Amino acid sequence: MLKFPKSAALSVLALTAFANPAFADGDIDAGEKVFKKCRACHAVGEGAKHKVGPELNDIFGRAAGGAEGYKYSKAMIAAGEEGLVWDADSLTEYLTNPKAMIKGTKMAFGGLKKDEDIDNILAYLKSFSTEQAAASEAASESAEGAEPAENATAAPAADKPATETALVVETSQGAFGLGRKAMPDEIAAWDIDIRPDGTGLPDGKGTVAEGEPIYAEACAVCHGDFGEGAGRWPVLAGGQDSLLKERPVKTIGSYWPYLSTVFDYVRRAMPFGNARSLSDDDVYALTAYLMYLNDVVEDEEFELSKENFTQMRLPNEANFIADDRLNEPHYAKGEEPCMSDCKPGPVQITARAQVIDVTPESEGEESSGGSID
Amino acid sequence: MVDRTDTKQAQPAASRRSFLKASLLGGAAVAAGTGVARAAGDPLITEIQDWNRYLGEGVDVAPYGKPSEFEAHVVRRSVPWLTADPVSSVNFTPLHELDGIITPNGLCFERHHGGTATIAPADHRLMIHGLVDTPLVFTMEDLKRFPRENRLYFLECAANGGMEWRGSQLNGCQYTHGMIHCVVYTGVPLRYLLEEAGVKTSGKWLLAEGADASAMTRSIPMEKALDDCLVAFKMNGEALRPEQGYPLRLCVPGWEGNMWVKWLRRLEVGDKPWAQREETSKYTDLLANGKARRHSWVMDVKSVITSPSPQAPVTHGKGPLVITGLAWSGSGTIKRVDVTIDGGRTWQTARIDGPSLPKALHRFYLDINWDGSELLLQSRAIDDQGLVQPTKNELRAARGENSIYHNNGIQTWHVNTDGVVENVEVS
């Protein structure tokens, strides 16, 4: 075993080193990259239409709640009526923490943590706005004058003494003395997994009825209004009694063993392209709604919560078994394989890929060939 | 049949086509050609070629380097109808064009669930927490200060061959077997990192999580984690490719590819498995009786002939023919590979060439003198545990046709008298 001297038990990790000064001029190309976070819900550019969120052409100079044909939250309409017009300042504030600025906004996005990202995205959006000149000026002022909103660890203001923002961290006590002790807030930020026994469930609750509009807005575009799946997107509901059939439909109700997996997965990875954007209550409500779509509960007022979660059972839980492949006859017999006269007569062809003909780049390509998962 | 002339690979395809035509003309043409050659000679020899007269490109034209322009057809390919969206999808390694046992990094198949995450190494963190004495956070710089190891391992998706359960369907070993690659990983043994944090005696399971938009998670038993798992940052000597988890991935040797979490950012120690999406709704093997196997981690003993195969037909006519392929087992090394040319009536033991390393690809060859008659080619691998690769019908008898995963059945290629190859099944 290698022995390494233990390094000092304490070291100072100055997080200020990672903080970037606010950029007066954002970069359009970099902003286009940041916009990937937005494009699941927002369109911008030629022919942009409202999606989950309003289209963003000419957002600079637009009154809040002012895009025609988009159904805004009451809060956003009220903000517009009170005179809020989108410019570099207001957009910076909004994108930093949407719900803090417009309490009740429909936008599920949690906000951009880096000032740099905000500057870049504003530069990108500005390139689709006719009020470019005015906006550009405003952006400079904003960058120079505004106190950026901060979260706990990122982007401390440059004028604060370094000692206030530096974090004292403990190094590892292991054989190598490498790494540092993880802080409770850091663990909490990443440790979002849920187990079937309920370990990891956050406080919260939501009803079937509350889940329905969230599902309609965030999920139905891929999974269908009733969980039936659009195109080849996953089917979420139905399929009961299909597991013995030629094409089983493996859904939450027909196949999944544990409800905790639904909560865990929706919270960590959905909606596709906008992960981690739902609140815990939203996820409880969505999970309740998915139970309802699968006839696991039938009451629209059913409320799923941290307290009653582990009492819920999915129908197929008992049908999962341990891996017993090695007991299968072809493995278990353990014979030396045959080398000669292994088949009685000439070998016949029993199936041909050309007949099915679903290989890419051949004609007659179609989606009839099963799936990989 | 994959028609090479339709694949937008004008140059190589054309040369192959003319080659094939020439061979189809048969002996007479060759004899005539010999006469012409004696008079005038092969112009490629008798005439001075451009590349022999004019200067080629200097150094630094391609600072990284790239394959010859004549190899432009050697690429990963996808099957568009398989998945809903290319962001959460898969493509396939062109096994039929490769030899040896190392997969070039740019040809390693891709499977990701939320697109390829772009993470600067300086922004990457690996956290170990849960049932440990000290929860730890490592930077990439920290990780590169641990002792490291180099290991050659195959990585196979458990769904490799999953489209073939109901019968032969895709015409090419790229599609039937291409969800596999084999590279040399450089990384830190996972047990060093776990020991650094100090696993409590109650810690029996590990949850590995990726930093990508799917936040991929899998439960791994502690015994495996402490055995041969690696936390890798290099593949074939260079940094991991972005699509393979740059800057950090987990290697779980011999076990299904989905567990090799890419963009690895978190390892949680616990006392029970987590029953995540990829180990309940996916990567469980539905049997004919409606039961489903879970935790079927080990990749089975398996082999496939990569050439001849549907995308690599025999173009040279009868005479010497190299039959070659790959064999592997998640349980260890390959002890033997047998090959049949008559659909399984008689078998010959193939020659394994190159290194034979546990949980790595093995390259085999059978050098025959083809008489020009039809062939039904199969290969059958036997590993050092004595496990023999089963037939597809044996698998169906044991599991039905709805398992999707772990299809390691013997593959049959039919070679017709023109050298054209098709994916078939036999009695």
From TrEMBL, chain A:
PROSITE patterns (UniProt xref): CYTC (PS51007)
This protein's record includes keyword Cytoplasm: no
Bilayer-crossing regions: none
UniProt signal peptide: 1-24
Domain Cytochrome c: 26-129, 206-294
Keyword Transport: yes
Gene3D superfamilies for the chain: Cytochrome c-like domain (1.10.760.10)
Molecular functions per Gene Ontology: electron transfer activity; heme binding; metal ion binding
Keywords, alphabetical: Electron transport, Heme, Iron, Metal-binding, Signal, Transport
Renumbered residue ranges of the record's region Disordered: 135-163
Superkingdom of the organism of origin: Bacteria
One Pfam family of this chain: Cytochrom_C
Record-linked PANTHER family: CYTOCHROME C
Protein known as: Cytochrome c
Organism of provenance: Hoeflea halophila
UniProtKB/TrEMBL annotation, chain B:
Keyword NADP in record: no
SUPFAM superfamilies named in the record: E set domains (SSF81296), Oxidoreductase molybdopterin-binding domain (SSF56524)
Keywords tagged on the record: Metal-binding, Molybdenum, Oxidoreductase
Biological process according to GO: sulfur compound metabolic process
Keyword Metal-binding attributed: yes
Cleaved signal peptide residues: none
Segments forming domain Oxidoreductase molybdopterin-binding: 113-274
PROSITE patterns: TAT (PS51318)
Cofactor: Mo-molybdopterin
Annotated Moybdenum cofactor oxidoreductase dimerisation domain residues: 296-411
Name by which UniProt lists this protein: Sulfane dehydrogenase subunit SoxC
